[in-house]
């Protein structure tokens, strides 16, 4: 109990500046979270473009790279926030993959809204849980707090997007794959078909890939059951065998190749949801790094290949870019005649360079 109380008290001091002025509850917490984001951006702790983040004294570092495919504007985007919520032991990472005519606007809106909203909800739920447990012997679960925070955040972001005056998300949407590292635990929240893969040392002392997320495709049994139960349809087109898509009951639209996403309100009544799957994992010294990538990478690169590409990159800042470059080569070789997808990668390194075989140089890709 003492650990969580001190955690809350430290965060509460940061939020209290806004609450001294008035007592508007959630609106104040949201404003404070937005101010934290602005301050972090000034201190170069938030990265939204291709580059590298490594705060002084932090065990975390992250490499980002995004490349436009051959289908038009790049609808992928990413974000890393080191020192998330002014907490030295926290980092937030995310990959957001848009689709549809307004997909690039949707993905950027989700990217920009989610971190502050998540921080606000985490603060409020943590505060309430701390108050509820005062004087009791119940064990406070950090996972339950993060899960509730993510569920509330995703519902809020999707609702805001539906009523956005400048973004038409009726036939457009975005996936979202995010990770929060807090000390020696990571919390993963997945909406869609981007994927997180962990590189860890096996009992045989080799570096192996462990997939941390499910690709939420419409033909997964639990996903298809929900869609069919809501009168939606799931089938492949004749010229795309093996590519299962979600369709409205009486029309050949929209043909969405994932079962969870923000936006896409044309089929929200027919089984598509924006509910995240939230999981946790305790980090050990055997865990080296985590790769977050949009589906364009995984269409042509296996989990193990991705781990080997990143681990063999001498400089951490170049890791994400090198993985994308290898995927571009694989697209040209394996998927000739098919327009290359947008591809984005975040490589989150879990230990300082002094305890890793990968060298580290702070640099930014232009």
From TrEMBL:
Gene3D superfamilies (alphabetical): PPM-type phosphatase domain
SUPFAM superfamilies documented for this protein: PP2C-like
Domain of life, per UniProt, equals: Eukaryota
What SMART domains has UniProt attached to this entry? Answer: PP2Cc (SM00332)
Domain PPM-type phosphatase: residue ranges: 61-350
Question: Pfam families of this UniProt entry?
Answer: PP2C
UniProt-recorded name of the protein: Probable protein phosphatase 2C 73
Species source reads Camelina sativa (False flax)
